[in-house]
Design brief:
Alpha-Beta Plaits, three-stranded antiparallel beta sheet
Length: about 110
């Protein structure tokens, strides 16, 4: 078992662990509730941490977390079906459900 990353909060730690599990890597969040005792123990030891259970998954897990931490950059796009405008991070129209055309950057 190896620690992948310390998260800034429990929500982010859970998101990362869920993404790792969805990618086929068994992951767990540890130190979920230690923030309440910050001061009793060093604050940097109170943040939730994501761990992978298989040591061999560590490099791939760290890469995935890096990707999750990096915001998607690019230009927005407009749905060809309904005209709804979307940010670059969206691959599907929230309004009508159509996918972004492959030729659209982002």
């Amino acid at each position: 078992m190896k620690r992948v990353e310390i998260a800034p909060n429990l929500v982010i730690a859970t998101l990362w662990a869920d993404a790792l599990n969805a990618a086929g890597m068994r992951a767990e969040v540890f130190s979920r509730y230690l923030t309440s005792i910050a001061g009793e123990i060093p604050p940097d030891q109170c943040d939730p941490a994501v761990w992978v259970l298989d040591d061999g998954d560590l490099p791939r897990a760290r890469q995935l977390v890096r990707e999750l931490r990096t915001p998607v950059r690019g230009v927005g796009w407009t749905c060809h079906e309904c005209g709804e405008r979307h940010g670059a991070q969206f691959a599907q129209c929230w309004n009508c459900g159509h996918s972004r055309p492959a030729s659209t950057p982002g």
